[in-house]
Amino acid sequence: MGMAELDHVSGESGRVVVARLSPGEDLLRSVGRIAAGEGISSASVEAIGTLDEARMAFFGGVGHKLIQYTGRLELVSCLGNVSVGEDGAPVVHLHAVVSDGEGRCLGGHVLEGCKVAITAEVVLRELKGVRMVRVAEKEAGRLSLRLSAE
């Protein structure tokens, strides 16, 4: 049995964009809006803050389980990236851990519908020399990441 091919590319850090989101904003859409407005096609993303609603998914190979929560949540950690789709539009891929007032944590793949409560602080770190493209894999029902040097 052969080893799996390592798919990687090296680049450099570019601009750093820091944003503060307002109550009611959708976390995923806002990150996409900021990336598009700044002309960023490849970036790493991190965020913290508070949410009033969370919509996430757990992908366990085949299909996914929807995780929804309504009520005040702490956005403990949110990490991910910005790439582009085959049409050139930004694709935001985030995973998050949130906690409720009792300290119970939920985590998963961030979906549209994560609404900011008080604020969210977002950092985008542009990746120079790296092209990340999300390509549809219809059989698997997901978008896969393709990497290349720019």
In short:
With 150 residues, this protein is mainly β. Helices cover 8% and strands 63% of the residues. It has a single domain, classed as Hypothetical protein, similar to alpha- acetolactate decarboxylase, domain 2 (60s Ribosomal Protein L30, Chain: A, 2-Layer Sandwich), CATH 3.30.1330.
What is the H/E order? EHEEEEEEE
For CATH, the homologous superfamily is named as Hypothetical protein, similar to alpha- acetolactate decarboxylase, domain 2
Round the Cα radius of gyration to an integer and report it: 16 Å
Shape: globular
> Which stretches are poorly predicted, pLDDT < 50 over at least 5 residues?
1-6
What is the CATH architecture term?
2-Layer Sandwich
Mean pLDDT: 92
Please report which band the strand proportion falls in: under 5%, 5-15%, 15-25%, 25-35%, 35-45% or over 45%: over 45%
CATH topology: 60s Ribosomal Protein L30, Chain: A
- The termini sit apart by 33 Å
Write down the CATH class.
Alpha Beta
Helix content: under 10%
Write the layout of secondary structure elements.
Blueprint: E1 12-21, H1 27-38, E2 43-59, E3 64-85, E4 90-99, E5 105-110, E6 115-128, E7 130-137, E8 142-149
Parallel strand pairs: 3-7
Antiparallel strand pairs: 1-6, 2-3, 2-5, 2-6, 3-4, 4-5, 7-8
Provide a descriptive summary of the structure in words:
The radius of gyration is 16 Å and the shape is globular. About 25% of the residues are buried. The chain is mostly beta strands and about 150 residues long. Strands 1, 2, 3, 4, 5, 6, 7 and 8 form an 8-stranded mixed sheet that branches. The chain has one helix spanning about 25-40; strands spanning about 10-20, 45-60, 65-85, 90-100, 105-110, 115-130, 130-135, 140-150. A hairpin with a 4-residue loop joins strand 3 (about 65-85) and strand 4 (about 90-100). Mean pLDDT is about 90; it is low at about 1-5.
